[in-house]
Amino acid sequence: MILQRTLGQPISATGVGLHSGERVRLALYPAPADSGIVFRRTDLQPAVDVRAEPSLVNDTRLSSTLVTDAGVRVGTIEHLMSAFAGLGIDNLLVEVTAAEIPIMDGSAAPFIYLLQEAGIADQDKPKRFIRVREPVEVVEGDKWVRLDPHDGFTVELSIEFNHPAFNRAPQKVKIDFADHSYVDEISRARTFGFMHEVEYMKSQGLGLGGNLGNAIVIDDEYVLNPEGLRFPDEFVRHKILDAIGDLYIVGHPLIAAFSGHKSGHAMNNALLRKLLATPSAWEYVSFKDPLDVPSSFHRLPEVR
Ligand SMILES: [Zn+2]
């Protein structure tokens, strides 16, 4: 039986909020089977719980932000959600002391390290996957995202920036997780932004925590970070990291082929909402025999 997973023990970290520039404390706790990923704003009195689910993603301007009916926000969840997806973690309570998850180094790697430090524990209920049965697509002008039936998990994304720093590298990447490791090939890819955007955002009181330590920053010609890029195609790899995190807000791993062009958080969320609203397009599946699981999921780390 493939079982649901949580953490072996609680663990915490401190970082900076990308938009507020404030110090944020993040604490992760094991949570019961079938509880999903729940964020808890402990800076509010009383604390407020916000469950990660597609219907609560109500702000996608700069990141994927959960917003409850009462207006309680948890922002920049996509890199943390991506790490949970990469390690196959189903249930977790995430305490956070601000309206956004800390940006860390702009990738999911610090979260992977943290989760692996805490260890991963099997639970007593079967893991539920979502198997896509029919194509689902969202199109807006020349941008699109889609899910197709596939016995595994693949992500194929392309971006289109006519800019010297981007033209030097492939702007299209396909990763088949049957052959490639999320931790090695995706988790380290950092978020990126243009210098003129950074300046504009700061003038609007946003991106106050942003610096060369937590984003790739590009001017009119070059990457400004002295250490350069972690992968030649780090930009599009980060878009894959984001998409994996955005898709995991559905609460289950997808057995599907995901693809997109010039897409982002808003379209990823629209795709999930369309999938859920089309009952014939998907089904829940569990696996009694681990050998029946598509090989894309064999790469999840062993439970220690
Ligand atoms: Zn991102």
UniProtKB/TrEMBL annotation:
Keyword Hydrolase part of the UniProt annotation: yes
Binding sites annotated in the UniProt record for Zn(2+): H79, H238, D242
UniProt entry tagged with the keyword Zinc: yes
The reaction(s) this protein catalyses: a UDP-3-O-[(3R)-3-hydroxyacyl]-N-acetyl-alpha-D-glucosamine + H2O = a UDP-3-O-[(3R)-3-hydroxyacyl]-alpha-D-glucosamine + acetate
Cofactor list: Zn(2+)
Active site: residue positions: H265
Coiled coil: none
Any one Gene Ontology BP term: lipid A biosynthetic process
Sample GO molecular function, one term: UDP-3-O-acyl-N-acetylglucosamine deacetylase activity
Pathway(s) this gene product operates in, as recorded in its UniProt entry: Glycolipid biosynthesis; lipid IV(A) biosynthesis; lipid IV(A) from (3R)-3-hydroxytetradecanoyl-[acyl-carrier-protein] and UDP-N-acetyl-alpha-D-glucosamine: step 2/6
Keywords from the UniProt entry: Hydrolase, Lipid A biosynthesis, Lipid biosynthesis, Lipid metabolism, Metal-binding, Zinc
The protein's Enzyme Commission number: 3.5.1.108
One annotated Gene Ontology cellular component of this protein: membrane
NCBIfam families assigned: lpxC
Family (UniProt): Belongs to the LpxC family.
Function per UniProt: Catalyzes the hydrolysis of UDP-3-O-myristoyl-N-acetylglucosamine to form UDP-3-O-myristoylglucosamine and acetate, the committed step in lipid A biosynthesis.
HAMAP family, per the entry: LpxC
Matching PANTHER family: UDP-3-O-ACYL-N-ACETYLGLUCOSAMINE DEACETYLASE 1, MITOCHONDRIAL-RELATED
Name of protein: UDP-3-O-acyl-N-acetylglucosamine deacetylase
Source organism of this protein record: Crenobacter intestini
GN (gene name): lpxC
